[in-house]
Model the fold of this input.
Amino acid sequence: MPRHLTLALAALALASPSAAQIAGNIVRPVARAVRTIRAPVIDGRLDDSVWAAAPVITGFVQHEPFDGSDATERTEVRLLFDGRALYVGARLTDRDPSGIIRGEARRDLILKEQDAFIILLDTFHDRQNGFLFGTTPAGVEHDSQINKEGEGGFGGPVSSAPSVTGGNENLNWDGTWKVRTSIDDHGWSAEFEIPFETLRYGSGKVQTWGLNFARFIRRKNEEDFWSPVPRQHTLFRVSMAGTVDGIEPPAKQIALLTPYVLGSVSRDYVNAAKADGNLEFGADAKIGLSPSVTMDLTYNTDFAQVEADEQQVNLTRFNLFFPEKRPFFLENAGVFAFGTPQSVDLFFSRRIGIDADRSVPILGGGRLSGRSGAMSFGFLDVQTKAVEDLTGGRVAPNNYSVGRVVYELPHRSRIGAIVADRLATDSTADHNLAFGIDGKLGLGDAVSVDGYIAHTSTPRETRSANAFNLSGTYTTRQWEVGSAVRQVDEGFNPELGYLERPAFRFYSFRLLRHLRTPHLAWFRETRPHITFRQYDDVDGRPQSRLLHVDSHFLFANGSFFELPGFNFTREALRDTFEIAKGVKIPPGTYDHFEWSTSYNTNLSAPYSLTGTVTIGGFYTGRHHGASASVVARPSEKLNGTFRLAYDDIRLPQGHFHTTLVGVKFAYLFTPKIFLQSLTQYNNQTESFSANLRFGWLGPAGTGLFVVYNEGRATGEESGLVDRALVVKFTRQLDLAR
Done:
């Protein structure tokens, strides 16, 4: 390991023992849940007499803007349970109920953009992972799984995010539960019913779970927590949660069957003479082998209801990243995570069932996931069908299998291992294997050190095929420091994973200072910082470099801008790079200076604006780029987004521009019934696409879906490419009742 990196990580480890001692001295609050014979009526009013038996949980303190201070409004919570579900009742008093921001009625929306109440449940009490359930005054459902205390891997792709601390939240996970809310002259209330079958928990009759609550008061941009968490961390800091005693979840096993029927009509206008009709059946099943271990099975898997990807412009020679949205791959997805997010991932589930942007039918598969003591584990096996299209192209049938184990250690530490394999089932000579071990060491509250090593095996690959990473972060109220080193050898090829770029050696360092201004009511803080990232070939020749210097300015209402943003960049080309049609950049090393800024207005307002501007040198010439998104939410039922990204590239080899336009529209008849559209134009790919979705949601994202897709070419050979209309109905059946 380079000597300077060793010294940097040692400095992180020794930086501030006092911060850890202060956090460790906080006495965490304890709540108690009470068994009820009669379940409360979930109507959002808290007027059911059974709530009187539950002790009042209060004593919320601020997380923002002044962590540790008393909350400005009173919040009271009560907990009940019976043999079927956990019930949470929250009374959120507000002296100015006219100022409550209801927000839009969209499932899984960003909660910080309106008033909200959130529940965090650490059901295994491992102080690292948990379930999150939240709502707003509009009564939306927001749920997710929290893994590894929400800590992302440091040193991933460059981002304009205002903090170096990442987030490991599986927001696309959808559980079976319900919530109702109401607003009155003294504030608002929320009632939750969370079935135990939605959760995973350990064995034993009477249990202690980790617990925290959060309340957002948006007009004040205030965040209140029940168990205090310093402002440098988020609610995902599960190790700082309080506890709830007296929970007695049932030991009975779950058995859920989710069949679907799908009818579709589609036409490939490029290769087919007529439309093709199709009728399909399939099913998913969830079987609880124990309260902590679940088996998921899928047959003839279909994802027609999944929202379309938002397109991106690529002005680099490296891969773009698109997130996973398909339901089967989302539950316990954090268990399978290995590597540096969006840079080096040994398992990336979008490799299954998608090949070169076309769908590959999934015949079936299964997943076993859960926990035994301090060990979390996950095993996945999926079989895809062969695909032969009208142009003669073929995708072989493949079997994909992944095994992952993680052993949790005290003090936010862990160690784990993974194996990921792809095997062409019609040719055993066509296969790829990846495996690795990883770990994290938590030192006090402020310091984390992460590392992993990995290897891949591919037939006829004789080059070195290893990868390793070592990174560390130091995070306090005032400082954020991060350092990382990573290497990917030339032969490293995780075919079931994701690589942003092949074969590199990477170094990074970041230093950020939080400067609070408590005497200015309209302003929150300034964040001057410096970031350095360098990519080299494994033999030491340069690839890319970035030195970024700027400052963030955050206002009390959530508005934000960074200025000035100075970037000193380097791109080194070994080969000719065709960046656009007919525009080829010759090999060479290109050093430049560029200016950049990003901004957003108050995101809780009915109309808001977000954007970026970049001006500077670019390879052999100049680059002027800008992007902007306008969000309109005139009511909780209606919302729309207009997105525009434009780049003007002037090079001696040629002048070109890229234009990406996206228009989103949604009308929410209720939080469970919606009409949504996404229309996109991309001149870089010479394409126009439209996606229209109607959904009538049932439990856990099931229900009725009607989806229309259309694609058009906009280049020299413009015209229709394809059209499809899909109607899908899926329903969750509880076979254990």
